[in-house]
Design brief:
This protein is mainly alpha-helical and 128 residues long. It has 1 helix and no strands.
Length: 128
């Protein structure tokens, strides 16, 4: 009686312990698998971060190159604008010089015509 019941209780307790041990082992296995998955995911995220940082560095370098190009073009434009202004001043100076020369030419032409007219008149008087 008592020994048999005690043996049955002992067997039930052992069975319960074994059952809990199996559950604990399975839970531990699941936790290890989850830890491994999380580790893989973490590594994937780190790799993604590293790739994005490398891409960002390339983009920043390209931006610096483009900014350098823009600065160079701005300096070129400034120099060309200065050259244009210089050419405008030269053109204005030449235009004024042309106007003065044209006025002088017109005055001299009028004087020459006046002299020719006088010569023609004197020649006509001498021939008469």
């Amino acid at each position: 009686g008592i020994n048999a019941e005690y043996g049955k209780e002992k067997d039930d307790a052992n069975f319960k312990l074994m059952s809990e041990r199996i559950k604990a082992d399975e839970l531990l296995k699941l936790l290890r698998e989850e830890k491994e998955l999380l580790g893989d995911h973490t590594q994937a995220l780190k790799n993604q971060r590293d790739s994005q940082q490398a891409l960002l560095r390339k983009i920043e370098e390209r931006e610096r190159q483009l900014q350098g190009g823009v600065t160079t073009l701005e300096k070129e434009i400034q120099l060309k604008q200065q050259a244009i202004e210089l050419h405008k001043k030269e053109a204005t100076k030449h235009s004024l010089n042309y106007t003065e020369l044209k006025n002088s030419f017109d005055t001299l032409s009028a004087e020459v015509e006046g002299i020719r007219s006088k010569i023609a008149d004197k020649t006509a008087l001498l021939e008469a």
